[in-house]
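re: ur question from earlier - yeah i can do the single chain one, its not a big deal. heres the input i used so u can compare w yours
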Amino acid sequence: MRHRNHSGRLGVDFGHRRAMLANLATALLTHGRIETTQAKARAVRPYVEKLITLGKRGDVHARRQALSALRQRQIVDRLFNDVAATYSGRPGGYTRMVKTGFRAGDAAPMAVVELVEAGFEAKPAKAAKPAAKAKADKAEPAVEAAATEASSEADAAADDAAEESKGEDK
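and the output i got, formated as C-alpha cells:
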C-alpha cells in the first residue's frame, strides 16, 4: 500500500532521490537561488521548508536531524545561524518557485527556486504585446532614425551654406 507516500519518484530509486534532494537543498541554502526542472523544484521546496523549520527550533535534536538530511556541517551551521535568524518572524513559506521556460537541450520545463526575503527579488513578468503593436513599435524607431538622420543632414548642409556665405561676404 502507498499510504503517506505522496512524493514523486523523479525517475530514480530511493537512495539517489534522497542524495539529489540533499544536494539541491544544500545548493539552495548556499546560493539562495537555484535553477532546476519543475519536478525537482516541486520536490525540493517542502524538503527545504522543513529544514528551515528545524533551524528555527534550534535545539540539538533538530540540528542532528538537519545534519542527517544535509550531510554537511558548514551548511547546517549556516542554516541554524543565518537562515533561521532571517525567518524567525515568518510562520512559513520560506521559498518561492518561478517558472522560467524550457531547457534548450531536451525542452524540460525549468523553474527557479529561491529563498524569500534573502535579498533576491522575483523577476517581473513580461507583458505580452499584440502582434500589430509589436510591429508598430519596431517600425517607429526606424522612422525616427531616418527622420533624425535627414534633419541632421539638413542641418549640416545649412551650416555649410552659412559658412560659404560668410566667406563670400568678406
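The chain has a mean pLDDT of 83. not sure if urs matches, ping me
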